[in-house]
Amino acid sequence: MSVIKANNLTKRFGDFEALHGLSFSIEEGSITAVVGPNGAGKSTLLKIISGLIKRTSGEIKVLGEDPWKSQKLPRMLSVILDKPYLPQFLTVEEVIKEATSEFDADYSYALSLVEELNLTNFLKSKIKDLSTGTKQKVQIVFSLIKNPKIIVADEPTANLDVASRFEVYNIFLKLREKMHTTILISSHIASELIAISTHILGINNGVLRYVGEISKMIRKDLLEEFYITVDNVQRAVSLLKSYTVEVYGNQLKVRGNLVNIVSELVNNGVRIFYIRNSILDKSVQGEVGWV
Ligand SMILES: Nc1ncnc2c1ncn2[C@@H]1O[C@H](COP(=O)(O)OP(=O)(O)OP(=O)(O)O)[C@@H](O)[C@H]1O
């Protein structure tokens, strides 16, 4: 069942057309990687879907509602933006309690999200005293407390290190599995995102380049090959014994499921600096076609 449907969707800012007649649909329970170079139109599209800005022409329906006009949609859809907007003088605990009561949600569920994002030690800290990455994680918890049917996340992991990015991805994967939540995530660095997504929507210069199931667009062997830069190569190699690993300096070329590989390393104290799947990145930048 499709939960988002766009038909000939256009957005103009003055004389500049940022989106040129996009038509697509998004299936319930999918994780869609919204990818494209800087300035492609990703944020503009996600803001229209979330009801934050109004389309210029065409049609968009989200859970059957017009996102710009709907009063019901804000209860069912959560937006996560790249810059956290939270009350600076409240503590993390106060922010979470407020959100829990506002959305009539379960406080123990909120605390489980806090735990999964390793925020328990920050409960008594004021938002203003947190690092940007930690604020971002609090914003993610805040957005998820109302148990949305759709999550629209615009570069949600932009300020986070690799371990924290995968904590967030793991929450998204669990929500999809347990609650059948539909998730759209944008990024212009797509290797990791594609590894956790079921679908991909590629935009360039406001034009829809491709949309559909990742498994039908990219060969599985190309999806499962990553270069990972780590602090301790020897330890990483011994932890990844069951995978095919090649070593190039402090970089490993590993084949397999990225989420499992990263948790194996991070949970055993290996620090990851960098993850790349160059073919996916180039595809997303429009340098090579889908294979
Ligand atoms: N409020 C605005 N007024 C005028 N132009 C805008 C406005 N918002 C976005 N644009 C333009 O629309 C185009 C698409 O911008 P958008 O932010 O959607 O791209 P993006 O794909 O999210 O880029 P990035 O990866 O850099 O975040 C850009 O050329 C941008 O300059």
From TrEMBL:
<keyword id="KW-0067">ATP-binding</keyword>
<dbReference type="InterPro" id="IPR051782">
    <property type="entry name" value="ABC_Transporter_VariousFunc"/>
</dbReference>
<dbReference type="InterPro" id="IPR027417">
    <property type="entry name" value="P-loop_NTPase"/>
</dbReference>
<dbReference type="GO" id="GO:0005524">
    <property type="term" value="F:ATP binding"/>
</dbReference>
<dbReference type="Pfam" id="PF00005">
    <property type="entry name" value="ABC_tran"/>
</dbReference>
<feature type="domain" description="ABC transporter">
    <location>
        <begin position="4"/>
        <end position="230"/>
    </location>
</feature>
<dbReference type="GO" id="GO:0016887">
    <property type="term" value="F:ATP hydrolysis activity"/>
</dbReference>
<dbReference type="InterPro" id="IPR003593">
    <property type="entry name" value="AAA+_ATPase"/>
</dbReference>
<dbReference type="InterPro" id="IPR003439">
    <property type="entry name" value="ABC_transporter-like_ATP-bd"/>
</dbReference>
<keyword id="KW-0813">Transport</keyword>
<protein>
    <submittedName>
        <fullName>ABC transporter related protein</fullName>
    </submittedName>
</protein>
<keyword id="KW-0547">Nucleotide-binding</keyword>
